[in-house]
Amino acid sequence: MHTTTSAAAIRDAGHIFHLRISGALPISIQNMPEEETGAVYGSGDGSFNLVNYSKESTGGAVSGLNGLSSSIYISRNLGYAFAASENSRVLTVVNRNNGGSYPLSLPGIYRVSVNAGGTFAIAFVQNSDYAYYPLQLTGAQTIQLFRRPEHLAAWRGGL
User: Fold this and answer.
1) First and final C-alpha spacing in the chain
2) Contacts with 54 (C-beta within 8 Å, 6 or more apart), sequence order
3) Bridge partners (DSSP) listed for residue 96
4) Domain limits for position 32
5) CA pair distance 56, 36, nearest whole angstrom
6) For residues 48 and 57, what is the distance between their CA atoms, to the nearest angstrom?
7) Candidate ranges 12-16, 30-34, 55-59, 65-69; pick with highest mean pLDDT
8) pTM over 0.85
9) Are 3 and 17 in contact (CB under 8 A)?
10) Tens digits of residue pLDDT in 26-60
11) What's the total number of domains in the chain?
12) Which residues, including other chains, have CB under 8 Å from residue 7's CB and lie 6 or more apart?
């Protein structure tokens, strides 16, 4: 696999930041200038690296992803990463606050999107009207759901 180094130049309030990021085929830059942070995804090797604009340096890699991703986002507070893997048909949710990585099998998944606050993510299925959103249940909600399966319809929005 060929590894390239890309130079990302970001203009913010009259300043230009030059960052050198290693990875294979870096194709996506998620820019969060208010937080002085960004994230760069390399589609060739699946690397997802954080960058620190104030220090003009890398901030480490996001681990726990499930292979190459066709779409990937991280929340503004860097607490959660969401990645859709079209090839492996998996939505991966990485909780960076507790170190957990949760792969969810979703046939046909190909894109993911996250709202600005990082409180809602939605995963899209290709050539379909289906869309999924992950929901982290509390312990009490999990017990309630498994004790009374008929509540599953309520969790699915009454479908």
Assistant:
1) 45
2) 36
3) none
4) 4-155
5) 10
6) 14
7) 65-69
8) no
9) no
10) 777 888 877 788 888 888 888 898 988 888 777 78
11) 1
12) 18, 19, 20
